Amino acid sequence: MFLFFCLLLLASEAVADIKDRVGISTTVFTVTLNQSETNFVEVQGWTPPPDGRGSLDIIISCCSTIFLCCWSVLCINVPPSHWGRRRRIHEKFLVCAMSGLGPEFTFQLALGQWVSARQSVHDFHSSGFTSWSLSHAFLADMGGFSLKAPDFVEFPLNAQQVHYLVTHGYIDYSVVALPKSVLDDKNKEDGVVRFLTICQIIWFSVGCLGRVIQQLAITTMELSALAFIFCTLGTYFFWFAKPMDVGSAIVLEPNTSLREILLQAGDRAREPYRTTPLDFCIGRTHSSWHLYWTYWMNIVRKMHLMFPVKRGPVEMIPDDNFPQLTLWTQVILLLFQLAYTGIHLMAWGFHFPTDTERLLWRIATIYMVSSVVLYWSIDRFIWQIYPLIRFYKHQRFKTGGADCNDTEKGRQGSFHADLLARLRNNSSLHDPTMRVPLRALIPVTILGIVYCFARAYVFIASWIGIRCLPTSAYQTINWTKILPHI
Questions:
Q1: Rg (CA), the chain
Q2: What is the three-class DSSP state of 401?
Q3: Of 226, 249, 258, 384, whose CB has the highest number of CB atoms within 10 Å?
Q4: In what order do the strands lie in the sheet with 25-31?
């Protein structure tokens, strides 16, 4: 309702404004906040491409930059062999859409997968397999290896499962220790697209810097594109060693049956698996963000807006799998999220077609930065601080050895307890490891919904703001005043 109200108010302001400003140059009287004097800003409506740049030039430059940033950076996981080209492109477009809606999510994926790959390299090196590299680990974690046991269907493996099979002698290390030539052949990275993206990023960034130096106006759309560039460069860095567009997995055949592998694993392999029979090789804990994201995606799938998750074993390692982060990588993620949202605050003093649009932009951008701080505060308190408080409180006030879960256990048969259990866990198999505390789920979900509204407004305002820009926004950079010349 808040977003609808803002858009309705914005539309009414825009319609009245367009009648007087489209296609003409005029002078607008504005008042600068926190200053006593007034400023006169010469503005201009939609401008066709002159010898310099016009409105369409700005739109094409920003859109091409954002699309290249979202598309060229993607390293999707290995799809099943029976998927056709259409289904593979559809999957990549879904991940591209996620990157377009939130490039910080793609950066978080890259950062988490980099942490997982480094841990895999450490594990293999500790086991004496020193030729295992980051590229091998990335390939394994993206489903580049699959297991085809004689008594079971084929299913993908991750790096931890490959390490288990190798160290226990079920798979020979030479089979997975691919030479560099094979890794390069698996990597279908489009060097032309990457080169064009880097060139576009450099040219776009240098152009914005030149406009700042010469005090020429920058549009909010260009500012949003700079925010995408910031996240893209970080994603490039952490996905540098990850193969791109791997078409098919390398099939591994163990020297024994899957049943024998599970029997020799003992009690830890007795629990029902959620994705593949080798789930016991992986830790049963998940990052808090992975739990939130999975919960929300389950709601979307139940609305039939996405492909449903089939019962195990899975055919593909999902692209929206958020691995756990270490403490210092969590700090990196927090700083990147603050920087990405904070870039939009740079438009605080920009010219906007109406005062309402300026006010809404400021509210939206302030909320985007604040929501990052609130999310991390709530998440750390619920998952780390609150359990410690509850534990010490229980240790202090327990009587007669009573357990803090006795009350919950006594209500297992009640309707209230059953309802709460269903709200906390909406996974298809009701995996207990996918349980999300409501005290964390509810506030984070509310923060996320309002954050999406704020992002939607920033996106819309960036587009409709093109209708009325300062005249200097259409002036080209005089490079002879910046670059050395004879």
A1: 27
A2: coil
A3: 249
A4: 25-31, 38-44, 469-470
Sheet holding 145-147: strands in order across? 155-157, 145-147, 250-252
- Cα(170)–Cα(126) distance, rounded to whole angstroms? 18
Number of domains into which the chain is organized: 1
Whether omega for the bond prior to residue 313 falls within 30 degrees of 0, making it cis, is yes
- DSSP assignment, residue 346? G
Q: What is the dihedral of CA 383, 384, 386, 390, to 10 degrees?
A: 110
Q: What is d(CA 331, CA 479) in angstroms, rounded to the nearest whole number?
A: 39
Residue 424 lies in a domain: no
Question: What residues make up the domain containing 283?
Answer: 2-398+437-481
Residue 405 lies in a domain: no
Q: Which residues contact residue 121 at a Cβ distance below 8 angstroms, ignoring those fewer than 6 apart?
A: 132, 133, 134, 136, 137
Tokens (6 digits) for 379: 């998440």
- What are the two backbone dihedrals, phi and then psi, of residue 400, each rounded to the nearest 5 degrees? 65, 25
**For the purposes of burial, counting CB atoms within 10 Å of the CB of 450, is it exposed (0-12), middle (13-18) or buried (19 or more)?**
middle
Which ranges of 45-102 would DSSP assign to H, the alpha helix?
A: 55-72, 85-101
The residue written with tokens 């390692």 in the block is 317
| Pairing, β 25-31 against β 145-147 | unpaired
Output the pLDDT for position 102.
85
| Number of neighbouring beta carbons within 10 Å of residue 7 | 17
Q: How far apart are CA 216 and CA 225, in angstroms?
A: 17
Tell me whether residue 422 is in a domain.
no
What would the DSSP string read from start to end of 111-149? HHHHHHHHHHHHHHHHTT-TT--HHHHHHHHTT-EEE--
Confidence of residue 283 (pLDDT cuts 50, 70, 90): confident
Per-residue pLDDT tens digits for 304-361: 666 555 566 888 888 888 889 999 999 999 999 999 999 999 999 898 999 999 999 9
CA distance 354 to 275: 53
Instruction: Give the residue carrying structure tokens 């991940």.
Output: 95
Within-domain flag for 47: yes
Q: Which amino acid is at 220?
A: T
Q: What is the pTM of this model?
A: 0.83
Residue type, 429: L
